[in-house]
Amino acid sequence: MTASPMVNRLLIGLLALLAFVPLYAQWAGEPFLITFLSRVLIFALAALSLNIILGFGGLVSFGHALYLGLGAYSVGLLAHYQIDNGWLQLLVTVASCAVVGLLTGWVSLRTTGISFIMITLAFAQMFYYLFVSLKQYGGDDGLSISLKSDFGFIHLGSPITLYYAAFVLVALVLWWKQRMIQAPFGLVLQGCRMNEARMKSLGFPTLRYKLSAYVLACVIAGLAGLLYANLTGYTSPAYLNWTISGELIVMVVLGGMGTVAGPLIGTLVLLVCEELLKAWTSHWPIILGPLIVLVVMTARRGLVGYLMRGKSSP
User: Fold this and answer.
1) Neighbours of 120 (CB within 10 A)
2) 311 occurs within a structural domain
3) Fewer beta carbons within 10 Å, N or C terminal of the chain?
């Protein structure tokens, strides 16, 4: 699939601007800018992971926040026992998300449509209530994190270090997805979205491809959760709630479902608009909601769709 030159230029320019944000924030004395855009990058990473299965695989998951929460709790629970080793936290994050993703995906992917949506939602809510019941770890009130992840040569307790860690992960996932959609794995995954029966008749083990994509998306979402716990210094069962999954879906659809740059653009626009409208009125959802509906109704591929110029992918 041919890339749209305008979208490519926009993405490169956006990444270049984001790379210099900490320098500008320090010069202007605006530390909030680093914190806010760190949140944008972290949720963009989670949205990019969801887009692997939603945009390219056609799998609408209402339980993707489960893996964001698992990543956050991997940091929180270890920090609760005074373990701040970032590599161990990373190992626990990847292992827990991969195992849970493999088991839940193996069950969920045997269904389609509304059944898949409801099963992913059910698994996420099951883990949500599990963490609510863990009163020794804060239960519904959540768990404060006093020790940030220490990887030896980098420490995520530094806002600038955390920002660039999120930025690098987002850039790497964007680069990988650009290559993935043109690789056999990505083509088969997109083929499954368009006509899975035909892909099966051609001899492709579609369940294996979809499960691989599902587990990969879960692990990337877990990495976003690890970063988010370090950003907020806190983790809570609310991170696993279905409302977070819904927000991630909105970010993907708003930016451009099935596009490379869409989730990043959608997350940035959504969170910036939300922040601006909150400063203006307490009734900001009444304004933001119709704007989202307008974009979705007028552009086949969200905000990126306005720049596609007839191309099939950004």
Assistant:
1) 27
2) no
3) N
d(CA 61, CA 224): 17
* Joined tokens for residue 113: 């449509």
**Residues 49 and 170 sit within 8 Å (Cβ to Cβ):** no
Does 314 fall in a domain? no
Angular region, 29: left φ>0, alpha ψ -120 to 50, beta rest: left
Residue type, 114: I
Establish if 313 belongs to a structural domain: no
206 belongs to a structural domain: yes
User: In this structure, what CATH number is given to the domain that contains residue 202?
Assistant: 1.10.3470
Residues 20-69: pLDDT tens digits? Answer: 999 988 888 888 899 999 999 999 999 999 999 998 988 999 999 999 99
Q: Which residues contact 19 (CB under 8 A, 6 or more apart)?
A: 167
DSSP of 67-112 = HHHHHHHHHHHHHHTT--BHHHHHHHHHHHHHHHHHHHHHHHTTS-
CB 194 within 8 A of CB 215: no
> What number of CA atoms fall less than 13 Å from residue 220's CA on the CB side?
27
Q: Which of 102, 105, 96 is nearest to 57 (CA)?
A: 105
Separation CA 97–CA 312 (nearest Å): 32
Tally of structural domains, the chain: 1
**pLDDT tens across 184-223, in order?**
998 999 998 888 888 888 888 989 999 999 999 999 999 9
Residue range 288-307: mean pLDDT, rounded: 80
- The amino acid occupying position 280 is W
Q: Return the closest-CA partner of residue 47 out of 173, 172, 149.
A: 173
Spacing of C-alpha 252 from chain mean position = 9
Question: Which domain, by its residues, includes 68?
Answer: 5-305
Say whether pLDDT at 257 is over 60.
Answer: yes
Q: Which residues in the chain belong to E strands, given as ranges?
A: 143-144, 234-235
Please, which residues bridge with residue 155 across strands?
Answer: 150
